[in-house]
Amino acid sequence: MTIQALSYFGLEVTDVDAWRSFAEDVLGLLSADDIADGTARFRMDSRAWRIEVTQGPADDLSFVGFEVADAQAFEEARERIERLGVSTHSGSEGLARRRGVLDLFYFSDPTGMQVEIFYGATELFEKPFHSPAGVSGFVTGGQGVGHVVLLVPNLIQARTFYEEVVGLRVTDIIDMPTAAGTIELVFMNCNPRHHSIAMGQASIGKRLDHFLLQVASLDDMGFAYDRALNAKMPIRATIGRHSNDHMVSFYAFTPSGVAVEYGWGARELNETWRVVRYDTASLWGHHELGPSKGY
């Protein structure tokens, strides 16, 4: 596969300062050098940044960045996508500098979200990552930033787009029973992380249901749960274990109203993986505590 990882994403938020406090004090992310327009960016590892929040009314996901290995893979990816009839746009020198990459191009997914393909991200090994909340480490590297779960108006269209255009593979499917009927959730991968993108069909005015941050130890996850409670952040779902990736995690609402999953212990894909289906999202736990129209 050409795509190697979901390496960064950006959110448009109404309250950047609240996000900065939440990201540092609860999630344990490290503030990166801010951009002049007041945008805040956060580090999780040796990369210059992984998550960006920009002032705006949407309180939603605004862009995602998928990484390829080098200039050759970059050109091959663009040629393949354009052969499929998708219009791409070259990133300006200014945008590449803002993202801290050697080059990028972008296009829109079926929801209108900007999807970026890039290579040559900035590493800051000379400035080691230190979590302000004492997190021992985040699981990133070749697995990327984590995952995002999208709410899409047409699941078949979105799944086809991310398979054929972006180049992701289906990991598995959950047919999840709800009060409104069974909802199909599709999980997609591009490296050993169980899923970098997942999606379900819904029309609630937001494209992002939640994003995941995976930490290196169970204690890292547990301490974060305590920090979220102490900060009086609304908990969406209690600690539980998922049926498909076996992640032990909890969900909290962010200052934007979308959720963050904070987890540990997911199993990874290997060459013997086979696509299967499940009837439930969690083996145990993940009891809903807050209002949620997502998954």
Task: Give an overview in words.
The mean pLDDT is about 95. This protein is of the alpha+beta class. The protein folds into 2 domains: about 5-120, 2,3-Dihydroxybiphenyl 1,2-Dioxygenase, domain 1 (Roll), CATH 3.10.180; about 140-285, 2,3-Dihydroxybiphenyl 1,2-Dioxygenase, domain 1. It is globular. The chain is about 20% helix and about 35% strand.
Radius of gyration: 18 Å
Read across the widest sheet, the strand sequence of neighbours is 17-10-11-12-9-13-16-15-14-18
Portion in beta strands: 35-45%
Distance between the termini: 28 Å
- Structural class call reads alpha+beta
The overall pLDDT average reads 95
Q: Which architecture of the largest domain per CATH?
A: Roll
Mind summarizing the main beta sheet?
10 strands, mixed
Poorly predicted segments: none
The CATH topology of the largest domain is given as: 2,3-Dihydroxybiphenyl 1,2-Dioxygenase, domain 1
What is the chain-wise order of helices and strands? EHEEEEHEHEEEHEEEEHEEEEE
Domain tally: 2
Question: What is the molecular shape?
Answer: globular
Helix content: 10-25%
Oligomer: single chain
CATH superfamily label of the largest domain: 2,3-Dihydroxybiphenyl 1,2-Dioxygenase, domain 1
In total, the number of strands is 18
Helix count? Answer: 5
